[in-house]
Design brief:
Strand content: 5-15%
Bound molecules: iron/sulfur cluster, FE2/S2 (inorganic) cluster
Radius of gyration: 24 Å
Oligomer: single chain
Number of helices: 17
Shape: globular
CATH class of the largest domain: Mainly Alpha
CATH topology of the largest domain: Fumarate Reductase Iron-sulfur Protein, Chain B, domain 2
Length: 374
Amino acid sequence: MPEYTLRIRRFDPQSGRAAHWEEHLLDMPETQSVLDALLKVRDEVDGSVGIRCSCQQAICGSCGVRMNGKPGLACNTHLGEASRRAHGAGWNPPAGNEPAVIEVEPMGNMPVIRDLIVDMDQVHWKKIQRVTPWLINQEPVPEREYIVPHENMVDVTQTMACIQCGACVSDCLAMEIDPLFVGPAALAKSYRFVGDPRDAQHQERLKDLAEDPHGIYDCTHCFNCIDACPKGVDPMGQIMRLRRRAGSDHEIEDRNNGYRHEHAFVKNIEKNGLLHEADLLPDSYGGKFHPRAVPEVVSSLPIAARAFARGKMTAKSALTHPHKASPEVKRIFKVVEGREERVELNLYVTGYEDDPKSTGPGPEETTASESEKS
Ligand code: SF4
Ligand code: SF4
Ligand code: FES
């Protein structure tokens, strides 16, 4: 049986002692979970190890931790998988070598209560409450029931898969910089209702999250939440969908300039084929000479000066762009803009296989949600 060194980060704020690592050597099959290993240590060696768990089947969401630097559920992460995380995919511990090390520490972006237990109330649940996590029903209430089109329910199925484990919150880069950011889990939760036709407040929800400086436009597209999520919720994808709903369907021009920035991005690519950064900032504020753009351009001058000094930018590259959009890029824009209805490219919930207009994957790539439609 492989041997593992389980390194557990211990911390009890009430003890007055600094956080420290404790090591335990374990002989366990690599197909047992990290939670099994933690519980073995707690049951047989040290009953004071703090870990939260319940279902042990990746359902309750209570055993979120970081294992070798990556967040996830301790109960559905095999010891072998956790040890390979430290070395990258495809790595196997060589026989006869040192035991593989598995470091287990509490999730990030949330205060530690004790050892591996973090205070979900302080961060995660507060943010969930922030997005009004319940349906505000349409009026009048039907006599019997609301009839919801099947595709709408399939559309929100992905967000409904969330088990509120907080793994995405743990590694959200935007939240590290801005703790007030509403965050991936809560924004995914919000799409649950924005995508539901029974909800009466789509516009209000979207406006609220677009106008909030810590809302939908605060995400930096780092993809960490997608990697972290054990349930395939794709929180970043849901945030992008909220943005498209806010910007394209409801034309919400927010005070954070998110709407204009996204449109400037699209126009920039349409014109140049490749991004011309020097135009992006002024265009996001209405163009180089727009009164709103002037303070932004002035405040960016020190950065531009440093880029000039380091040779990363020249007068020519700042003022002109060597690329012009190719006919292929222009054709893509024409096709997309010529559509009567915007098509969501959500890989979890895509078009029907027998729909010739569908832009989703073919039948061989059918996802779990798609198969529910048949
Ligand atoms: S993609 Fe956005 S929401 Fe997701 S972890 Fe990164 S910054 Fe946070
Ligand atoms: S979106 Fe995924 S990672 Fe985030 S709380 Fe829900 S299940 Fe956990
Ligand atoms: S113990 Fe329930 S998700 Fe891990």
